[in-house]
Write a structure and sequence with these properties.
Order of helices and strands of chain B: HHEEHHHHHHHHHHH
Strand order of the largest sheet of chain A: 2-1-3-10-4
Largest sheet of chain B: 2 strands, antiparallel
CATH topology of the largest domain in chain A: D-Maltodextrin-Binding Protein, domain 2
CATH architecture of the largest domain in chain A: 3-Layer(aba) Sandwich
Low-confidence stretches of chain B: none
Distance between the termini of chain A: 76 Å
Number of helices of chain B: 13
Mean pLDDT of chain A: 91
Order of helices and strands of chain A: HEHEHEHHHEEHHEHHHEEEEHHHHHEHH
Distance between the termini of chain B: 70 Å
Strand content of chain B: under 5%
CATH topology of one domain in chain B: MetI-like fold
Number of strands of chain A: 11
CATH class of the largest domain in chain A: Alpha Beta
Number of helices of chain A: 18
Oligomer: heterodimer
Radius of gyration of chain B: 30 Å
Strand content of chain A: 5-15%
Mean pLDDT of chain B: 87
Number of strands of chain B: 2
Structural class of chain B: mainly alpha
Chain lengths: ~425, ~325
């Protein structure tokens, strides 16, 4: 009798152990990985409303974002829905780490409603191929944030060109009584792509180029006279920044204007939420927002990313269903009301978006000028070299020509090694 | 017992019945020990030896775990080693990373040794509050290196508290984390703050183990303080100090976490603070040059084994001298 009872309970326990996880997993689990910034926090909140899966969002430091995702890929695991920067896409597609979403985008999502510039940069590999590997989750570019009271005290207008901006920054730095000690700050730290994205659009607007994407040539293109001029210009801007600006990342740039020390900053629209709440940003009531200026030409660094589905995900169908929910009108309106920037044109034009934040009306104009850079598997090595010497040159620790020569030589060597027979044919 | 009759009880026991022999007679103590150790050994083999052998094999290949995920590694002999040790491209000079590591290790360990030994010398006597003071002095060592690096990063920012005091003294602000000639000293400062207590602890253990009668004998011979220190204290403490130096040198040589938090994987401006460990990380886990990263890991391993051997030889020499 005792043995039968014991047997019965043993079987019961085993059955419970087998059944319980199944019951707990009624809904599939989905994971998303992104870098730590306000939109990632917003997404973490938004996914709580998704009824058909338990979705978790991991926000990693930006410097570790790419490394974490690709280390996970190498281990054939990681998040179901990685959010990759446009420059990571080539490497991810070449490695076979993410799913081809062309049919899904064209048949199950409002393909024609997407901002096609954003869609191409974030999703199409190679560019112009018609093969898409991600769904735009946030479109982004850079905005100019300025202190209206300081501008008024100095009789300044919102700068229309980079030269105007420098003149304004120098005037503010020279005036000790206008309410700001420093003129302009941006993230010039050598970390991730921070110094690169802060400087690239200065170069492009001055008429320069990072490389010739047709011939894969860097030498003679990057280290041109225009390139040197753009570096020297950035160094002059740097001199109007607070002490220690060479190590400024996102947080320090936001602090620079919110604390009142600096009159102008330039940062991604995605950080916009940091400037509207006077309880966290002391100068919130004095801030104005504008499109980052141009010079001879007008380009602004492209931000924003698409969400892909990992080739190693065990829940690919659930991931597609989640993307459909995320891209629905209702969810997109919630997204923009919380501070997100949509990839869909109809949402961008909606009243909800335009009224969601004081800087949103400038976004559509700014996005006309976006430009991206290398979308190559060798991106990380190229980026690392550029960051190292650019940070030194902008902070005045290295001659501009010398720095660009070093970058050009090193990047050319990387490209020549990777493509000994010349650029790949698409 | 009730079922046994008297005749059965009276029979002598001539042999042990076969079924009464231990069931696991074949299982000797040696076998049992082996069986108990086997899971741990297998785990060790899987977690340590296999990666070691696999990474050694990869170090002779040209392969990226991300870019070449669809292709097998391609053998290239010793090319990775040759390229790493002879490449003169600015961003790839392995030698520079070892120089940076040396520039950090030598001052950091030296200052930690001198300060740690000095503080231990002062604490090697009884006075009120000695216990509390000891605990307070040991606190930095007990903190997480990441936490330590984070709060030093805040203090070392351009407008941080360190520069506040620097400017109070009338000097210009220092680019602790932004000046290529200063960042290595920032790493040294943080490391010294954190690890001097370790040197102090080992030194104190050595000092308290010196037999008192030696000092008494020296006092009888009217030996001076310097003589006592030079000929009694130092030789007696030296073997322990050397062990502390070995530990700290090996640890400092591998410096990653503090440098990563303070300066990022790139090692700050112009890679001026990029130690060898950060360099391995960049090659292997940022550029994902897996073959080259493995080779670099082995170069680091050879260097640290060589260094450890030098220290151990010196230590053995000291011990032989004492005997």
């Amino acid at each position: 009798m005792f043995n039968k009872t014991r047997l019965f309970f043993s079987v019961l326990v085993v059955l419970m152990l087998v059944i319980m996880p199944t019951t707990a997993q009624d809904k599939p689990a989905l994971s998303i990985i992104w870098f730590a910034w306000p939109p990632c926090d917003l997404l973490s909140e938004l996914v709580k409303d998704y009824p058909d899966a338990n979705v978790t969002v991991t926000c990693v430091p930006i410097g570790e974002w790419r490394n974490q995702i690709f280390a996970d890929f190498a281990a054939q695991g990681g998040a179901d829905l990685p959010i990759l920067d446009s420059q990571f896409m080539g490497e991810a597609v070449k490695g076979g780490f993410i799913m081809d979403l062309t049919d899904f985008l064209q048949n199950d999502l409002p393909f024609d409603d997407y901002n096609q510039t954003a869609l191409s940069y974030y999703s199409e590999v190679p560019l112009g191929s018609g093969s898409y590997f991600s769904v735009p989750v946030i479109t982004d570019t850079r905005m100019l944030v300025y202190r209206t009271d300081v501008f008024e005290a100095n009789g300044l207008e919102v700068p229309a060109t980079w030269t105007d901006l420098l003149a304004a920054a120098q005037a503010i730095k020279a005036n000790a009584d206008d309410g700001a000690d420093n003129g302009f700050a941006s993230h010039w730290i050598n970390d991730g792509d921070l110094v690169q994205t802060a400087w690239n659009h200065v170069l492009w607007s001055f008429g320069g180029e990072l490389w010739d994407s047709e011939t894969y040539t860097v030498e003679g293109v990057l280290n041109s006279e225009i390139g040197v001029e753009a570096v020297n210009f950035a160094n002059m801007l740097f001199q109007t920044a607070p002490e220690g600006a060479a190590a400024f990342g996102f947080t320090e740039v936001v602090d620079a204007i919110c604390s009142g020390s600096t009159a102008m900053i330039e940062i991604w629209y995605g950080f916009g939420g940091a400037f509207t709440d006077s309880s966290t940003c002391a100068q919130a009531d004095n801030l104005g927002f504008a499109v980052v200026p141009g010079e001879d030409e007008h380009f602004i660094s492209l931000g924003g990313q698409g969400m892909s589905i990992s080739a190693f995900s065990q829940n690919q169908d659930a991931a597609k269903a989640f993307l459909q929910w995320l891209q629905s009108d209702e969810t997109q309106i919630k997204w923009v009301q919380g501070g997100g920037f949509p990839g869909r044109l109809s949402i961008l034009a909606s009243e909800e978006f335009l009224n969601a934040a004081p800087y949103n009306p400038t976004f559509a104009e700014a996005f006309q000028y976006v430009k991206d850079f290398w979308n190559l598997p060798e991106y990380a090595a190229m980026l690392s070299v550029q960051g190292e010497f650019l940070n030194l040159a902008i902070s005045g620790q290295m001659d501009a020509q010398e720095a660009l020569d070093e970058i050009a030589a090193e990047q050319q060597a990387i490209l020549d090694e990777a493509y000994p027979d010349g650029p790949p044919s698409n | 017992m009730a079922n046994l009759d008297a005749s059965q009880l009276s029979q002598p026991v001539t042999s042990v019945p076969a079924q009464a022999r231990p069931r696991f007679a074949w299982l000797s103590d040696r076998w049992i020990a082996t069986l108990f150790l086997a899971p741990t050994l297998l785990l060790l083999l899987f977690m340590t030896v296999f990666p070691l052998v696999w990474s050694l094999a990869l170090s002779f290949t040209e392969w990226s775990v991300t870019r070449d995920a669809q292709n097998p590694p391609v053998g290239i002999g010793t090319e990775n080693y040759i390229e790493l040790l002879s490449d003169t491209r600015i961003g790839n000079r392995t030698w520079d990373r070892f120089v940076v590591t040396g520039q950090f290790v030598v001052p950091a360990v030296t200052i930690e040794l001198l300060l740690g030994f000095g503080v231990a010398f002062l604490l090697n006597r009884s006075f009120t509050g000695r216990g509390v003071l000891m605990i307070l002095l040991l606190v930095p060592m007990m903190l997480s290196p990441v936490v330590v690096a984070l709060f030093w990063r805040f203090m070392m920012q351009g407008e941080g508290i360190l520069n506040f005091y620097v400017t109070l003294l009338g000097a210009a602000p220092v680019g602790w984390l932004t000046d290529r000639f200063t960042v290595i000293w920032s790493l040294v400062i943080v490391d010294v703050w954190m690890w001097t207590p370790f040197m102090m602890l080992i030194s104190l253990a050595g000092l308290s183990a010196v037999p008192k009668y030696l000092y008494e004998a020296a006092a009888v011979d009217r030996a001076g303080a310097w003589f006592r220190f030079r000929h009694i204290t130092l030789p007696m403490v030296m073997p322990l100090l050397l062990i502390a130096i070995i530990f700290r040198t090996m640890d400092a040589y591998k410096l990653f976490d503090q440098a990563f938090v303070l300066l990022g994987a790139g090692g700050g401006p112009g890679r001026a603070g990029q130690t060898a460990a950060l360099w391995v990380y960049e090659v292997a886990f940022s550029n994902f040059d897996t073959g080259q990263g493995s080779a670099l890991g082995y170069i680091m391993l050879v260097v640290i084994i060589a260094l450890a051997n030098v220290f151990i030889r010196v230590l053995n020499g000291l011990k032989a001298g004492q005997q």
